[in-house]
């Protein structure tokens, strides 16, 4: 999947394929989302989590990967770089910010279900939401 995500990225950057929201999200799910999802889901499995907990960990990792990429794109806009294959370039600046907020809130909602043990994960999600680099 990661190679497929990279192919989408290269095609978008070369201008050989159009980038819509679905394609952009698929690219990030296969790349950054897959890396973070593997860490979250793998940790859940190693900790003896139930299947529903593993599913939540998978969703958490995938959503955090998307949130990371959206935040990266927003930082680039702040630096004066607006690319067509970015979230702001695809859906607009305000929609990208709104989407980041929605995904961040979902990550926090999942982590809240894990109680006090997940404080470090909540901090990670909040750090990503406000980071500037």
| Low-confidence spans | none
Number of strands: 0
> Largest sheet, described in full?
none
Terminal Cα span:
27 Å
Strand content: under 5%
Q: Give the structural class.
A: mainly alpha
Number of helices: 7
Q: What is the rounded Rg? A: 15 Å
Average pLDDT confidence is 91
Query: What is the H-and-E element order?
Result: HHHHHHH
Shape: globular
Helix content: over 70%
Features of the shown structure:
133 residues; mainly alpha; 0% strand
What this model shows, in words?
The protein is mainly α and 133 residues long. It is 77% helix and 0% strand. It has seven helices and no strands. The mean pLDDT is 91.
Summarize the structure.
By secondary structure, the chain is an all-alpha fold. It has helices at residues 2-14, 21-30, 32-46, 51-78, 87-91, 93-112, 119-130.
């Amino acid at each position: 999947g990661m190679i497929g995500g990279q192919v989408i990225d290269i095609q978008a950057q070369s201008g050989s394929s159009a980038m819509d929201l679905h394609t952009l999200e698929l690219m990030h799910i296969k790349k950054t989302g897959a890396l973070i999802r593997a860490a979250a889901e793998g940790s859940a499995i190693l900790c003896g989590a139930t299947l529903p907990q593993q599913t939540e960990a998978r969703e958490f990792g995938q959503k955090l990967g998307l949130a990371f990429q959206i935040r990266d794109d927003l930082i680039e806009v702040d630096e004066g770089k607006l690319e067509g294959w970015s979230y702001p370039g695809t859906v607009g600046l305000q929609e990208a910010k709104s989407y980041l907020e929605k995904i961040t809130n979902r990550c926090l909602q999942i982590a809240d279900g894990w109680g006090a043990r997940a404080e470090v994960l909540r901090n990670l999600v909040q750090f990503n939401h406000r980071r500037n680099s």
